[in-house]
Amino acid sequence: MSLEELEDGVAVISMPYDAKLVGDPRTGVIHGGAVSALMDTCCGAAVMSHPSNPGGTATIDLRIEYLRAAKPGQKITTRAECYHVTRSVAFVRATAEDEEDASPVATATGTFVVEGIK
Question: Is the pTM above the cut of 0.90?
Fold first, then answer.
């Protein structure tokens, strides 16, 4: 995974195509677990970059809707936005796209525990 952007509650992280992440060798499609890990990581990074400056975070709930398979051989990029933070919970939404960019591979909404808001 490569961090491409991180500021003010927004994170963008990409994951290059790698044969080690393929879920179905017949099609070459990346496993949903790899997409899930990318989205969870990106959402957590968005929370930690929020201007409220939480000290740490952990996933409470992450709902991912897989809309289509990512095209084999293409990088997947997730953009996550932490749009609301309370004293103990942050709310995040995210989208994962491959290089085609026509329609998302997956979308996510999640809640994350936050510690030490300043």
Answer: yes
